[in-house]
Inverse folding.
């Protein structure tokens, strides 16, 4: 079963709501979720916060945080997820930020560096990934891992195996 179907099924089963905040994926996570029939029962909406200004203005990521740690960082991913959850009033929110390439990488953060965060009441988890391949492949891998992370967090929250 596709990860987005598992996520929608689990969210609906447990009456949980989800929101998204996406940078490098440009809405692919939300797009995958909304492809699933019944997603309207559990998906509230999402933000595409590609620029630093959008991250600040739309979901409240402080400029100072971005200046200190960078747009592609665990700290920014955490703030994105928490900001989206707060603004959408959802039980959970997933955020992705990364460097999809082919340019934009540095020695410290090469192309393929991605941070994914999932915020839920009382807890926000962040995972770092180093993907390889084309821009398309990196965005696809990011989307799949984001959906898997949400699924893992639903299971942790509900105690369902």
């Amino acid at each position: 079963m596709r990860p987005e179907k598992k996520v929608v099924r689990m969210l609906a089963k447990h009456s949980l709501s989800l929101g998204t905040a996406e940078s490098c994926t440009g809405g692919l996570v939300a797009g995958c979720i909304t492809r699933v029939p019944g997603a309207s029962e559990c998906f509230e909406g999402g933000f595409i916060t590609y620029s630093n200004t959008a991250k600040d203005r739309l979901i409240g990521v402080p400029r100072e945080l971005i200046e200190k740690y960078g747009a592609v960082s665990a700290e920014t991913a955490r703030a994105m997820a928490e900001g989206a959850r707060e603004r959408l009033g959802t039980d959970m929110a997933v955020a992705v930020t990364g460097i999809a390439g082919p340019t934009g990488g540095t020695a410290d953060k090469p192309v393929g560096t991605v941070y994914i965060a999932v915020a839920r009441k009382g807890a926000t988890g962040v995972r770092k990934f180093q993907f390889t391949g084309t821009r398309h492949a990196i965005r696809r891998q990011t989307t799949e891992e984001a959906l898997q992370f949400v699924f893992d967090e639903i299971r942790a929250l509900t105690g369902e195996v």
Q: What stands out?
A: The mean pLDDT is 97. The chain has six helices and five strands. The domain at 3-158 is CATH 3.90.950.20 (Maf protein). Residues 49 and 55 are 5 Å apart (CA to CA).
